[in-house]
Amino acid sequence: MKKRKKMNHYNDMPRRVRVGNLWFDIELVSSEASDVSGGFYGASSGIRENILIRDGQSPGNLADTFIHEVMHCILTLCEADDGGERKDEEEFYVTHLAHGICRFWQDNPKVAIWWAHVNAMELE
Question: What would the mean pLDDT of 30-36 be, rounded to a whole number?
Fold first, then answer.
């Protein structure tokens, strides 16, 4: 089987992000590996401190998936992850918030650039 070349929008994807005091490794997985695991665009684990991202997504879906998984990591950090009792409810809200955040940045690209610049000032 031929190995598919990564799409350009995956090239600069971060390989590690910090969420609070935790570092999450970001791993790109093949669509085949995703399908074997039940099928997913992304998955995250606070225990393994990783984020899995499925290869082959469109740029818009990749952006949405990435922020979606980061939001799950934030909930884990804030101990708002209830261990699965309300997992469907969490998934519902994270999905809709990720869609909204991505749409906001798409509709307001200059705001995204400004926000990143102002936020970086805190690090100087």
Answer: 81
